[in-house]
Automatic annotation (TrEMBL):
The lineage of its organism: Bacteria, Bacillati, Bacillota, Bacilli, Bacillales. This is histidine kinase. Keywords: ATP-binding, Cell membrane, Kinase, Membrane, Nucleotide-binding, Phosphoprotein, Transferase, Transmembrane, Transmembrane helix, Two-component regulatory system. InterPro entries: HAMP_dom, HATPase_C_sf, HATPase_dom, His_kinase_dom, HisK_dim/P_dom, HisK_dim/P_sf, HssS/ArlS-like, Sig_transdc_His_kin-like_C. It comes from the Bacteria. Its EC number is 2.7.13.3. One of its GO terms (cellular component) is plasma membrane. The keyword Cell membrane applies.
Length: 466
């Protein structure tokens, strides 16, 4: 058997129809309860009450014509039919009908009457075409039965019972279903229209169009879902822009050294040089550009391994101050060339637990960036101290100021603050990305600030060995 698949709107519509159906069914049973239990019960109680009250008019003696006349007068003014007879067989002359196809009085009924008890008779009478509720009461004196009173009432049909209230029921029912329709329709619009918009929006996103946005009218769960889709779209849009920028940067970083290598190789091959010194200069340039490519590829591989958790740290206790001094020795030539003043504030006894190779790479890259982007004849401040059981490493230089909108992007692949990507600094934009990943792998914190007066400060916090 083929499974019937319904979409969400069809399911809700089905739920509404089922709800209305149950409401109508409930209304039917409620009216039936009112008719059968409340209405019929009240009629039975009234018949018994009126019968006992009528029979109580006679307390002694015989059933005189005067008493019978009073009973007949009561029959005229009452809503009930009352029959008074001397003998039980005479009752059939006044009520010659069967109730539910049975005789009005059977053998068991006769015994009850002889014992002085009344009997309740209820059932359908064909001649009246309706149900009759009645009771037969025996009239006794001190010694014997002297007569019988049969009081009965034909019941009105249910539509007659509720004839006065039917207009009210119709009016209130119509108003109820009208309000129900308006509420459901509003819910349908507020629920399904945003969902339809989200569906269309997701299709646009799946095709690569991340520029569209949803504008939810409500702040309910559907509105929150729309905002989540907007956030997802913005994130995908930013990732797409960064991917394009990354590809452009990779092409740029590779094209420049390859152009140099290809050009000078052709010059050497075709012997387009005027002296051996010029040829040697070409070879040196080729070597530098080859080293540049090698470093670029090596940094990309390192960064990928770090970001994908493919690199296993070989941790051991590290005297971080000594490692910093060893790293600074590597930059003496560069510091001298730019006439920079290195101002140190180092706490010698700090010990951290980490990978010495990677920690030195962090120190090297941070100091390298500070020297590259420092203005000549300026000062670089390097601090290494303990703050709240944490190693605090700060490097401050004065040179290129990082704009506020670029601060959060420091550490992205190939991102550089010098938009022209000049070759004077020689950077690829991967150094701080690697620093950021290594610091995170050591459960540390990386941050950077930049001010026109104080300069640019790179801050690294790492846990000390306890």
């Amino acid at each position: 058997m083929k499974e019937i698949k319904l979409n969400l709107s069809q399911k809700v519509l089905l739920l509404i129809l089922v709800t209305i159906g149950f409401t109508i069914l409930f209304s039917f049973f409620f009216l039936h309860f009112l008719y059968k239990d409340l209405y019929l019960s009240s009629i039975r109680e009234s018949v018994i009450y009126q019968g006992e009250r009528t029979a109580s008019h006679y307390h002694y003696g015989s059933l005189s014509d005067e008493i019978i006349e009073k009973i007949h007068w009561y029959n005229v003014v009452s809503e009930y039919e009352i029959i008074v007879v001397d003998k039980l067989k005479d009752l059939y002359s006044y009520f010659p009908y069967e109730i539910n196809d049975d005789a009005l009085v059977n053998i068991d009924d006769r015994k009850q009457l002889i014992d002085g008890n009344y009997i309740l008779k209820e059932g359908y009478v064909k001649e009246f075409d309706r149900t009759v509720v009645g009771a037969i009461f025996p009239i006794k004196n001190d010694t014997a039965l002297i007569g019988y009173i049969y009081i009965y009432v034909p019941l009105a049909a249910i539509q007659e019972v509720f004839q006065g209230s039917i207009p009210i029921l119709i009016l209130t029912g119509t108003a109820y279903f009208l309000v129900l329709f308006l509420v459901v329709n509003r819910i349908r619009r507020s629920l399904f229209q945003p969902l339809t918009d989200i569906r269309n929006f997701s299709k646009e996103v799946s095709t690569g169009n991340y520029s569209n946005r949803l504008y939810p009218q409500n702040t309910d769960e559907v509105g929150e879902l729309a905002e989540a889709f907007n956030s997802m779209s913005r994130s995908l849009e930013q990732q797409e822009e960064r991917k394009k920028e990354f590809i452009s940067n990779v092409v740029h970083e590779l094209r420049t050294p390859l152009t140099y290598i290809g050009g000078y190789t052709q010059a050497l091959k075709q012997q387009i040089f005027t002296s051996p010194e010029e040829a040697e200069k070409y070879l040196i340039t080729i070597e530098k550009e080859t080293d540049r490519l090698t470093k670029l590829i090596h940094d990309l591989v390192d960064l990928n391994h770090l970001q994908e958790n493919l690199y296993i740290l070989e941790k051991e206790p590290i005297a971080i101050a000594q490692l910093l001094f060893d790293t600074l020795d590597l930059f003496q030539i560069h510091v001298t060339d730019k006439n920079l003043n290195i101002k140190l504030s180092v706490q010698d006894d700090l010990i951290i637990f980490g990978d010495p190779k990677r920690i030195q790479q962090v120190l090297y890259n941070v100091v390298d960036n500070a020297i590259k982007y420092s203005t000549k004849n300026t000062e670089i401040q390097i601090k290494l101290n303990e703050v709240y059981e944490t190693m605090l490493f700060e490097v401050t230089n004065k040179g290129i100021i990082i704009q506020e909108e670029d601060i959060n992007r420091i550490g992205e692949r190939f991102f550089r603050t010098d938009k022209a990507r000049g070759r004077s600094t020689g950077g690829s934009g991967l150094g701080l990305s690697i620093v950021k990943e290594i610091v995170q792998l050591h459960s540390g914190h990386f941050s950077i600030t930049s001010h026109s007066i104080q300069g640019t400060t790179v801050t690294i916090k790492l846990p000390l060995l306890s």
